[in-house]
TrEMBL record, chains A, B:
It comes from Sulfurisphaera javensis. The lineage of its organism: Archaea, Thermoproteota, Thermoprotei, Sulfolobales, Sulfolobaceae. Its cofactor is FAD. Belongs to the class-III pyridine nucleotide-disulfide oxidoreductase family. PANTHER family: NAD(P)H SULFUR OXIDOREDUCTASE (COA-DEPENDENT), PYRIDINE NUCLEOTIDE-DISULFIDE OXIDOREDUCTASE DOMAIN-CONTAINING. GO terms for molecular function: oxidoreductase activity. Pfam families: Pyr_redox_2, Pyr_redox_dim. InterPro entries: FAD-bd_OxRdtase, FAD/NAD-bd_sf, FAD/NAD-binding_dom, FAD/NAD-linked_Rdtase_dimer_sf, Pyr_nucl-diS_OxRdtase_dimer. The keyword Membrane does not apply. Keywords: FAD, Flavoprotein, Oxidoreductase, Redox-active center. This is FAD-dependent oxidoreductase. Residues 322-424 form the Pyridine nucleotide-disulphide oxidoreductase dimerisation domain. Residues 3-283 form the FAD/NAD(P)-binding domain.
Amino acid sequence: MDKLVVIGGGAAGMSASSRARKLKPDMEITVFEATKMVSHAPCGIPYFVEGLFNDENLFMTYTPQFFEEKRKINVKINTKVTEVDLDSRIVYAESKDGKIKAEYDYLVISTGSLPKKLSVEDGNDRIFYAHHPANAVELREKLWSLNNIAIIGGGILGVEMAEALTHLGKKVILIHRGKYLLNRTLDQELGNIITQRIMKDAEVRLDERVETIKNGGRLIITDRGKYEVDGTIVAVGVTPNVELVKDKIKLGETGAIKVDEHMRTNYREVYSAGDNTESIHIVTGKPYWVPFAPVANKMGYVAGSNIGGHEMKFPGVVNTQITKYKEFYIGRVGLQEDEAKRYGFKPIAATISGKTRARYYPDAKDIHIKIIADENSKKILGGQIVGGEEVLGRIDMLAAAIMKGFIIEDTFFIEMGYLPAISRVWDPVIVAIRQLMKDE
Amino acid sequence: MDKLVVIGGGAAGMSASSRARKLKPDMEITVFEATKMVSHAPCGIPYFVEGLFNDENLFMTYTPQFFEEKRKINVKINTKVTEVDLDSRIVYAESKDGKIKAEYDYLVISTGSLPKKLSVEDGNDRIFYAHHPANAVELREKLWSLNNIAIIGGGILGVEMAEALTHLGKKVILIHRGKYLLNRTLDQELGNIITQRIMKDAEVRLDERVETIKNGGRLIITDRGKYEVDGTIVAVGVTPNVELVKDKIKLGETGAIKVDEHMRTNYREVYSAGDNTESIHIVTGKPYWVPFAPVANKMGYVAGSNIGGHEMKFPGVVNTQITKYKEFYIGRVGLQEDEAKRYGFKPIAATISGKTRARYYPDAKDIHIKIIADENSKKILGGQIVGGEEVLGRIDMLAAAIMKGFIIEDTFFIEMGYLPAISRVWDPVIVAIRQLMKDE
């Protein structure tokens, strides 16, 4: 009987094990998870902090018991893998009950990502990383007891934490290295809109670099000033968690584990999936790294399919991102304009502002759209949207278009729906596209 | 100097003339419009009746003055074209100021559609067609004065009028020939959901055929009963308005004007665009007819481009439809399951019900999705969604997928955005698609 061992019970690990179970009812499947949670959702942390829900079990799509009982998967929570012997196909793990040695025929590495750290002096009792749901209850308790809170990093997590904390009435200072917030998500035209919006609620410090954090998180020293606060959230990004295997397995140029289309590492029976795994960007054909749950889930599904004997290939990523801040939804897909240049494209772009509803329908929201295409091939390279409603679906549509190499004119002709209550007869996306056509 | 004459100043006609003007600044362009409105939006009528806006000028994207002044287009409103001499290239028209004779080098026929009528006896002072915005003020005044109103026809317009009138507190009886409402939009699984919802607000009579309407609209006789009401709205569909040219120009099998990819009729200098024009269904490659404004606009844009000397081809349609009823948005694209069978496909389908937000995020809405694919080619043939939010964009995404022949697996891998506040980590569309994959 084949044995599958999965290291890490997050999105990718549980997808892989569930899919393998479906295809191979007799396989012995064991998942080692270092925390108390499996199939957990870090994306929910800001909303838990905001107080939108209170039951930490809701962080889990399914409980360990569900996987044990319904899917016959051995789930070892609070169990940390300490070593992997890839040549002998053995995983060593440890829990409070002692050491475990597990042999495998197939291995899935799905260890996720780790938050990047900053230089810290004099303790860290007031330094927080909103990274893992297993610590969310403690995180929330502490944050709720503080008044002046610094967030370092104005990416998606930083902005989401700013939304949560300002909603709670906290005084927030947001310190960001970039010239505007969300600069890894949006180009400046659209990024400025969000930056200015957040400035209404929080003190935003741009183009500023943190040198060190002192007094356990109560003092922040940057290249331009000092800030005294009650505590500090560090949200300066994540990095693939490859600690366990980095000397044993081939990593890619992004620092994540290199895999082929089947999600196989350089060991034929060892798969990697999720935030610890490198992918290929569909637009560039080059290595890329996207640490988001939908990608992790699909990587896991592909790994599990192949382990289960049903061949499947992961096509790569287009870096779809979506977040929100108060009344604004914020989405992007594909390459930003600078990225496009860096990869050797000759980007042309159209940025338009419009409304989300027919001119006569009440309560229309603003929507701002940037579309980037390649002047030579006419292919759509990227899209960015900031708006009050129906941002997600437009981004999803552009994701489909970009993944299959739609040119500008293909995109113009997508027969988008029109309902006065929720769209425009010339959809704002089509208006932007039409502008690119006129440039021809 | 080239002369362009456009018959009909709706979406298609004004798109065609605007685009031609852009490309040929010196062209002499004349638009004949039988009513007082141009670039008008019939889709707004139910919302005007509901009282969501009061200024009838909002039905127009731009006024005749705008086109005259900003785009140098001669707009002749309240002017009816009475005859077209295609061999001599002359259009004859009439207004209260007298007769007009206009020669052309290019002609665009964009006469739109007409509402289908029913057998009527004894006058029609209480029979209404919610078809043209030019009559919306009068329509609304009359409807507001009535209490018991029948709507005949449970398609999109009938449902939208039911939403408006029940919202106003009117007693509505909705009489429909089909087994469930919106049966030309949705398959029965999803159609039932909407039908049951509307039954809470209105008396819904299904599978019932109107034989005649009497007493000016106060008495309806069907094959199963008689209904006394204060007035009757007839919403049994529309038909291409080809009266003017039906004996002179080639019509297609749908009854609309046949055109090539350039929107040209069998006369090289005569184009046709909008609701009076036949298209090709991209999925089947067969003639099809879609009387919706976004298609009309793009047809007009293509006609205007070609007249302006910039070659462009219209790729065909996938019949995207979107409407709403109270808290439900309702969308479809591509073929329904029955249609797919009729066209010789071997449809497989997955229907799922899910939620629109992460399980921990408050106020999630229900969403119901049906995806139809072809068992042989694995191509996506159609999609239908009924749900409380973010229906439009998912339909738009499926429209893109269907237009470019995505197979099931391509669609599974679309990197859809995930934000707990507005989607699920396994998007409901992907859940439906995944179910189709498991059937393989």
